[in-house]
UniProtKB/TrEMBL annotation:
Residues 316-323 form the Cytosol aminopeptidase domain. One of its GO terms (biological process) is proteolysis. It comes from Acetobacter fabarum. GO terms for molecular function: manganese ion binding; metalloaminopeptidase activity. Keywords: Aminopeptidase, Hydrolase, Manganese, Protease. It comes from the Bacteria. The keyword Cell cycle does not apply. Belongs to the peptidase M17 family. GO terms for cellular component: cytoplasm. This is Leucyl aminopeptidase.
Length: 475
């Protein structure tokens, strides 16, 4: 599928007929009048407009043109929220709209929020209707906010695509198609080569008629020297998860096309890093599989020797995501990256603890965790740290293998899943594991129902912050 062209953005041209949205706050009525005129403000108030955050009203403008007033949150009362501008893309009439906002509003938030609000996914045969367009400069159309929107919309498309249309081979092909034009070296492994290099992943994926694939991509920025920071990204790409022999109930399978949301997130992140030509070296690994029920599927109590040499007992075939990630994490560590990040729709326990909007973050380094926390706060892209609590490590013991893939107790499932992954990460390796939902259960401004990539903006900010660091600084 192509990277989005962002038809919702219109480059400003002379003599072009424009309508204007004035973004205002409730406490600043004088500003409303200065911008739109007393008559327009009186009309807006007669319609019930009070500049509540996200409230939009159309009002008459000069020379018979339409203009609009749009409510902003009060200063310092709410965190930065680019998604609020998604409502403009949803509710404005068709046409070219300029947004005039106070100086403290980040322009990139307007662009990003509008683009994400304009996103639609549909396989209907009818042509979609026209949408309003945001007027931007030529530079803004190529800038970071627009590139971020393209990356997020690309990931949303991948997650929303039905599983019959996006299996392991298709996901791998999409990665190759997206990254090679940006200069990445992309290798797709399958068959015997995959079985030998990634035995745990193969044990999950070989149960499906649609065989597993592993994508390994390598790239370095045009301004990245030999000592540029090396960032390694790993994504869980389970294109559909039946649960295997420990089969899910039908209700549990309804959204399992999204179980490759981690792979979609890191793929979109890699695309963005490359498109922005950050001065870093980058490695990307995607484990693309389907967890099926068949005569070739893994069985409960199977024991497999991993790439690292550790043996793993399959306590539950529905805990497959950690098996997909383990061999990839171990291989990624062989390059000694400055930062190793994996993203996965890994556990329901993380959603019970934090709900759908807060990805759980696990990290083996406090300063690195703080870096992610600061980035998440700055970008209004929340991540919530949970502990790698070593007191639960013994819950993963097996009587016949080095590890069991599930804990012996039905508690702290997100923590024990992260502890399992930690066995495949070197102790001195800076590592971050993000357990994400990758889905919106209902539509909100800028976040339509369906696939999504929470955390991607914070992740990009962290990677960008590494560009001036020295590779030897691991602590």
């Amino acid at each position: 599928m192509p990277i989005h062209d962002l038809d919702c953005l219109s480059v400003a041209r002379r003599r072009k007929t424009l309508c204007t949205v004035y973004a205002v706050r409730a406490c600043e009525r004088e500003t409303w009048v200065a911008l739109a005129g007393e008559a327009a403000v009186s009309f807006a108030q007669s319609c019930g407009f009070v500049a509540r955050a996200g409230q939009l009203v159309l009002v008459p403008g000069p020379e018979g043109k339409v203009q609009a007033l749009f409510g902003l949150p009060e200063k310092k009362t709410t965190p930065r929220d680019p998604f609020i501008f998604g409502k403009l893309a949803q509710d404005l009439p068709v046409g070219d709209w300029a947004v005039q906002a106070p100086d403290d509003v980040v322009r990139d938030d307007v662009i990003l929020g509008f683009c994400l609000g304009a996103y639609r996914y549909s396989l209907k045969t009818e042509e979609p209707g026209e949408q309003p367009r945001l007027v931007v400069t030529a530079a803004e159309r190529k800038g970071l906010a627009a590139q971020m929107a393209r990356a997020i919309c690309f990931a949303r498309d991948l997650i929303n695509t039905p599983a019959n249309l996006l299996g392991p081979s298709e996901l791998a092909r999409e990665a190759k198609t997206a990254l090679r034009p940006l200069g990445a070296e992309v290798e797709v492994l399958k068959g015997t080569a995959l079985d030998e290099a990634y035995p745990l992943l193969a044990h999950v994926g070989n149960g499906s008629q649609r065989g597993p694939r592993v994508v390994v991509a390598r790239w370095h920025g045009t301004h990245a020297g030999k000592d540029a920071p090396l960032v390694s990204l790993v994504g869980k790409g389970v294109c559909f998860d039946s649960g295997g022999y420990d089969i899910k109930p039908s209700s549990g399978m309804l959204r399992m096309k999204k179980d490759m949301g981690g792979a979609a997130t890191v793929l979109a992140l890699a695309y963005l890093v490359m498109a922005q030509d950050l001065p870093v070296r980058l490695e990307l690994r995607l484990g693309c599989v389907e967890n099926s029920v068949s005569g070739h599927a893994m069985r409960p109590l199977d024991v497999i020797r991993s790439r690292s040499g550790l043996t793993v007992e399959i306590g539950n075939t529905d805990a497959e995501g950690r098996l997909v990630l383990s061999d990839l994490l171990y291989e990624a560590g062989e390059s000694a990256p400055d930062l190793l990040v994996d993203v996965a729709t890994l556990t329901g326990a993380a959603r019970v603890a934090l709900g759908p909007d807060l990805p759980a973050l696990f990290c083996n380094n406090d300063s690195t965790a703080m870096l992610f926390a600061e980035a998440a706060e700055h970008e209004a892209d929340p991540l919530w740290r949970l502990p790698l609590w070593q007191g639960y490590a013994g819950w993963l013991k097996s009587t016949v293998a080095d590890l069991n893939n599930i804990a012996s107790r039905p508690m702290a499932g997100a923590v024990t899943a992260a502890l399992f992954l930690e066995h495949f990460v070197k102790p001195d390796q800076r590592w971050v594991h993000i357990d994400s939902y990758a889905w919106n259960d209902s539509s909100r401004p800028g976040r339509p129902e369906g696939g999504d990539t929470p955390g991607i903006r914070a992740l990009f900010r962290v990677i960008r912050s590494l560009c001036g660091t020295n590779r030897t600084q691991k602590s």
